[in-house]
Each structure stands twice: as C-alpha cells, then as structure tokens.
Amino acid sequence: MNAEELRRMLQIFDKNDDGHITMNEQNDCTFIPDFELAQMIQNIGVNGDGYVDIDEFGALYKTIFTDEDEDMQEAFNMFDQNGDGFITVDELKSVLGSLRLKQGGNVEDCRKMINNVDVDGDGRVDFMEFKKMMMRGIKEEEEAAMENQKKKKNTKKKRRKSPRREGIREENG
C-alpha cells in the first residue's frame, strides 16, 4: 500500500479528521474485540500518546488486514471508480452496467442497493460498510451450503432406512 492509499485509509478510520485514530474511532470500524484492539494500539503506538498517527497506522494496518482484506479492498476499488474511498449510486450503476447485470439497470435499483448497505446514512458505501456486506454475504453462503449438506445427509439416511427398500432387500435375499 502506497502513502496516498494509506492516508485515504487513515481518513476512513479518523472520523474527526484530526490526523489521529483513537480507540473509539478504531473500534467503530473493526471486528476486533476491545481488549485485543487496546493491546494492538498500545503495541503500535510507539510514542505512547494513546493515539495512532499515520506512521503507526501503517504498522497497525499490516497487523489488522490480511491478504483476504487486500482482495476485498481490490474489489471495493473496482466499484470506487474515482478513488475517493466511497461507492456512489452512479459508480455502482456504471460497474453493474459494464458487467451487463440487470440489477444495475436503473438508478433507483442502485440507490436501494446502496441504502441497504449504507450504515451511516451518507448515501455512499465506504470500505468498512462494503466489507461488512461482503462478510455477511459470505456467511450467508456458508450457512446455506452447510444447510444443503445437512439435507443431503438426511436424505441419504432416509433412503437407507426406507422400509420399502428393506422389503426389497428381503425379497431379493
């Protein structure tokens, strides 16, 4: 991640734009338990002021974000066409249209999609909102796959215990 990308990422977490991230600001944007987050900030905040500045944020970023997050950031960047750190209705419509997906066919559909994800109500999707949406989607897909596996196992068990099949085996046996 280059310096400009790091600065933009800091701005996502730095809610009051003071150039520092407090624990409360960081906590609002991550899925990390408070005690782990406090320990990370203490370990990363080398100057001991209780805040994370741009240099410390670079180190913290490497600690928090994995390769999976980088892949998610790349996906986010595909939608964030102007690179301002937000996905707008127009950007969403443009990307979905270029992919020839009918969901992006009109502005109102795209506005509804944005509103379903837009936690802070600013009419745009930032990276953390995008990530939460993607993680929710991944979790739902995993749960659906597990449910399908359970159904398949139950169907196999029912077939094995079927009285009709047992009767057929007795007649043939």
From TrEMBL:
InterPro entries: CALM/Myosin/TropC-like, EF-hand-dom_pair, EF_Hand_1_Ca_BS, EF_hand_dom. Transmembrane segments: none annotated. Gene3D superfamilies: EF-hand (1.10.238.10). It comes from the Eukaryota. Residues 141-173 are annotated as: Disordered. Residues 150-163 have a biased composition (Basic residues). One of its GO terms (cellular component) is cytoplasm. One of its GO terms (molecular function) is calcium ion binding. This is EF-hand domain-containing protein. SUPFAM superfamilies: EF-hand (SSF47473). Residues 164-173 have a biased composition (Basic and acidic residues). Residues 67-102, 105-140 form the EF-hand domain. Keywords: Calcium, Metal-binding, Methylation, Repeat. Potential calcium sensor. It holds the Pfam family EF-hand_7. Belongs to the calmodulin family.
